[in-house]
Specification:
Responsible for the transport of C4-dicarboxylates. It is found in: Cell inner membrane. The chain is mostly helical and 444 residues long. It is globular and about 70 Å long.
C-alpha cells in the first residue's frame, strides 16, 4: 500500500511540475523539472537518472552554428528569399505560404525564421482578397511541425540520440519524416482552403472596414532593392554544406571511423558526428564571412535555443528519474500496449507534448521509453509528428499571428481551444503519422 501511495504521490509531483513549468515556457519548464527532481530525490529517495547529455550537446552545437549564421546575416537573406517567393504567387498563398514557411524551418531547424515571415503571409493574403485565416493557420501549424523534417532541429537531435542504440541512420529517419511532412502539409492546406466565408463577406472584416480599423497597406518599393552581400550568401552556402555533410556521413556509415576496444568494434556515433560537424562549420562561417565576435551569441536564435536546452534538460531529467524508478512497471504496461495497439504510444506522445509544449522535450523524454519497450524503430519514426501537440493551447506563434491578421479572420476563440489553428493542427499530425506509417514499411 505504501509503495502504491508513493507511486501516485511521485506521479503527481511530476505532472504538477510539468504542468506548472509548461505555463512559463522553456526556462520555466526546465526550472520546474529541476524542482521535481529535487523532490523525487531528496524527498522520496529516488535515484536520479542521467540527463540526456548527448541530446543536449547536439542541440547546443546546432544552436551555435545557426546563431553564427544569423550573426553573418544568413538568416536575413533567407527571410528575404521567403518574402520574394510569397509575393510571387499571391492568389495561391494558402498553398504557397505553409510550404515556404516550412522550408526555412527545415533548413535552419528553428521556427524563429518562419516567425519573421508570418506578417508577410497575412499581408499578401489580405491584398489578394484571400481570407488570411486560411494561410496563417496552415503556415503556423506547418512551420511548427516542420522540426520533424529538419536534420538540424532539436527534436530531430533527440530522436537521433534515442534511436542510436537501434543503429538507425539519419537518412532513414529523413526518408520517412520528410515525405510524410510534405503529404501532411498538403493535407493541412486543403483542410483550410475553403474554411470560413470569403474575406469580403466576413462580418468582422466588414465591421473593421466600416469603423476605419482596417486600412489596406500601401507597400512602397524600397529606393534600393535588397542586394545580399557576399558574406550573407557565403554563410548560407557554408551552412547548407554542413547540413549536407551530416546527411552524407550519416547515410554512408562506412565513411565513419571505427575503433576496436576490448575486442569490440565501435563506430563513431551519429550524435557525435552532428556535434563536431556543426561546430566545425560554425567556425568556417566565422572565418570566411568575418563575423564579429559580438554577434556570435547576440541574436534571437541563440537566446531561444538556450531556452529550449534548459527546458529539455529539466523535463527530461525529471521524467527519466521517475520512469527509471518504476521501469519494470512501465515496461510491462507499455509492452502490453505496444503488442496489442502500438499506435496508442502516439496518443501518449501527443498528450505529453500538449502539456509540456515542446516537441524536443517530449522526444527526449519518451522516445527512449518507446525503444526500451520494444516498439519498432520504423513505427517510432512514423509517430514522430505526434510529439507536436503544442498547438492545442495557443502559444507565442499563434497569438502573434492572430495579431498580424488585421482583418480579424484569425481568432483564438472564447474557450481557449476553439481557435483557428486547432483543425489544421490535428489534420497535420494525423495525416503525418498515417503517411509515415506506410513509408516506414519501405525504409525499415
Amino acid at each position: 500500500m505504501e509503495t502504491d501511495l508513493n507511486f501516485w504521490l511521485q506521479l503527481a509531483v511530476m505532472l504538477v511540475c510539468i504542468g506548472v513549468g509548461g505555463r512559463f515556457g522553456g526556462v520555466g519548464l526546465g526550472a520546474a523539472g529541476g524542482l521535481g527532481v529535487s523532490i523525487l530525490v531528496l524527498g522520496f529517495g529516488l535515484q536520479p537518472a542521467s540527463p540526456p547529455v548527448s541530446t543536449l550537446l547536439i542541440i547546443v552545437a546546432v544552436i551555435a552554428c545557426t546563431s553564427i549564421l544569423q550573426g553573418a546575416g544568413g538568416l536575413d537573406l533567407l527571410v528575404r528569399v521567403a518574402e520574394k517567393m510569397l509575393r510571387k504567387w499571391p492568389s495561391a498563398i494558402t498553398i504557397v505560404g505553409p510550404f515556404v514557411c516550412s522550408l526555412f524551418v527545415v533548413l535552419c531547424g528553428t521556427a524563429y525564421v518562419a516567425f519573421a515571415v508570418y506578417p508577410v503571409v497575412a499581408e499578401v493574403a489580405a491584398s489578394a482578397k484571400v481570407r488570411p485565416e486560411r494561410p496563417i493557420a496552415a503556415s503556423v501549424i506547418s512551420a511548427g511541425i516542420a522540426v520533424v523534417a529538419s536534420p538540424m532541429s532539436a527534436a530531430m537531435a533527440a530522436l537521433v540520440a534515442s534511436l542510436a542504440i537501434l543503429d538507425v541512420s539519419l537518412i532513414q529517419i529523413l526518408a520517412v519524416s520528410v515525405p510524410a511532412f510534405i503529404v501532411a502539409t498538403f493535407c493541412t492546406c486543403l483542410s483550410v482552403f475553403w474554411k470560413g466565408t470569403e474575406l469580403e463577406k466576413d462580418p468582422e472584416f466588414i465591421r473593421r472596414v466600416q469603423s476605419g480599423q482596417y486600412q489596406e497597406l500601401i507597400v512602397t518599393k524600397e529606393d534600393k532593392p535588397f542586394v545580399p552581400t557576399k558574406a550573407q550568401k557565403l554563410s548560407v552556402g557554408i551552412f547548407l554544406l554542413g547540413v549536407v555533410t551530416v546527411i552524407l556521413f550519416g547515410t554512408f556509415k562506412e565513411l565513419l571511423p571505427s575503433w576496436e576496444m576490448a575486442g569490440k568494434v565501435s563506430t563513431l556515433p551519429i550524435p557525435s558526428l552532428i556535434q563536431m560537424i556543426m561546430l566545425a562549420f560554425g567556425l568556417f562561417i566565422i572565418v570566411f564571412c568575418k563575423v564579429p565576435s559580438s554577434k556570435f551569441a547576440s541574436g534571437s536564435v541563440f537566446v531561444s535555443g538556450l531556452i529550449g536546452v534548459v527546458g529539455v534538460f529539466g523535463v527530461s531529467w525529471l521524467t527519466g528519474t521517475f520512469f527509471e524508478a518504476y521501469k519494470p512497471l512501465f515496461v510491462g504496461l507499455f509492452t502490453d500496449m505496444a503488442q496489442s495497439a502500438p499506435m496508442l504510444f502516439g496518443v501518449v506522445l501527443f498528450c505529453f507534448s500538449a502539456v509540456i509544449l515542446s516537441p524536443s522535450a517530449t522526444t527526449a523524454a519518451l522516445m527512449p521509453l518507446g525503444v526500451s519497450i520494444g516498439i519498432p524503430a520504423g513505427l517510432l519514426v512514423a509517430l514522430f509528428p505526434a510529439t507536436c501537440g503544442d498547438f492545442i493551447i495557443p502559444g507565442g506563434a499563434q497569438i502573434g499571428c492572430t495579431a498580424f491578421d488585421r482583418t480579424g479572420t484569425t481568432r483564438l476563440g472564447k474557450y481557449v481551444v476553439n481557435h483557428s489553428y486547432i483543425i489544421p493542427g490535428f489534420v497535420h499530425v494525423i495525416s503525418g503519422v498515417a503517411a509515415g506509417y506506410f513509408l516506414s514499411f519501405i525504409f525499415f
